[in-house]
Amino acid sequence: MNNIVKKQKYAAVLDNYASDILSFETFKEQKKYIQHGKISVYEHEILVAMTCLAIVDKFDIKVDKRSLVRGALLHDYFLYDWHDDDPSHRLHGFTHAERALMNASNDFELNDIEKDMIYCHMFPLNISRVPKYNESLILCVADKISALKETIANIYLKIVKYTV
């Protein structure tokens, strides 16, 4: 299966399990917040959800796909620009998971797997938040893969800009 077909397949899975999240106005507002480089939080969460699905497919892991998709889409639902000078954002890496969980819990009904995914997604940076479910562990890996790709792409673009 080529990449375009896989992306279409994963997009259909996201729409099937999380159309309410994807169409929610507050979720869409995340397009205005930058996550890594030029990637918005909104784009990052979708890329992470798709990466989670790719990991599950690649390794044939049995998971609750609905929870996997929903938890992945909401893992960074902190709803602020962590790049601004607000002193409360200085420890963003350590604190945003709690904020994302609080916001997601206020806006959506979450099950235990989804809550754990959101709360524990910064493991091992937050060493005390060890994932309890396969879905949570998959999210931890997918989030790091996506963040690395997004950051490297941004660095590459900056290098090309200065060398051309």
Structural class: mainly alpha
Q: Could you please say which CATH topology applies here?
A: Hypothetical protein af1432
How many beta-strand segments? 2
Strand order in space, largest sheet = 1-2
The total of helices stands at 7
> Could you name the ranges where pLDDT drops below 50 across 5 or more consecutive residues?
none
CATH class: Mainly Alpha
Rg, nearest Å: 16 Å
Biggest beta sheet summary: 2 strands, antiparallel
Write down the overall geometry: globular
The percentage helix is: 55-70%
- The CATH architecture is Orthogonal Bundle
Binned strand content: under 5%
Total domain modules = 1
Q: Average pLDDT value?
A: 88
Terminal Cα span: 36 Å
Relevant CATH superfamily: Hypothetical protein af1432
Element-level helix/strand string: HHEEHHHHH
